[in-house]
């Protein structure tokens, strides 16, 4: 698995659209900043076919340090939940079918 960075995405978008890299970088960063701002406000962000970002409140709980077995209070916190959209789900499933089918075929023939 390869990690794709923001720089690589910016370069790819700039090349695909024929737009200057600096402008694409500003637009992408502005988009990401706005997502953070809206989630910080507790808003839900829905991008059709891509997915939905929303915040969830996690309750306070008592956890345990695995080394010392000492009980530790974990305060409540907000976290971000992402639900995969229809097109992304289909693309991920398509990737699973292509990568897993040769292995599945190999294990069936043995």
Structural topology:
Layout: H1 6-17, H2 21-40, E1 45-47, E2 51-58, E3 61-64, E4 71-74, E5 77-84, H3 86-109
Antiparallel strand pairs: 1-2, 2-5, 3-4
Verbal overview:
The chain is of the alpha+beta class and 110 residues long. It has 2 domains: 43 residues, no CATH class; 51 residues, HU Protein, Chain A. The protein is built from 3 helices and 5 strands. The strands form 2 sheets. A 3-stranded antiparallel β-sheet has the order 1-2-5. Strands 3-4 form a two-stranded antiparallel sheet. Strand 3 and strand 4 form a beta hairpin. The radius of gyration is 21 Å and the shape is extended.
Largest beta-sheet details: 3 strands, antiparallel
Structural class: alpha+beta
In the CATH hierarchy, the architecture of the largest domain is Irregular
Order of helices and strands: HHEEEEEH
Describe the global form. Answer: extended
Helix content class: 40-55%
What is the percentage of strand-forming residues?
A: 15-25%
Low-confidence stretches: 101-110
Radius of gyration: 21 Å
- Give the CATH level 1 class of the largest domain: Few Secondary Structures
Mean pLDDT comes to: 89
Q: What is the overall number of helices?
A: 3
Distance between the termini: 27 Å
CATH topology-level name of the largest domain:
HU Protein, Chain A
CATH homology-level superfamily of the largest domain: IHF-like DNA-binding proteins
Number of strands: 5
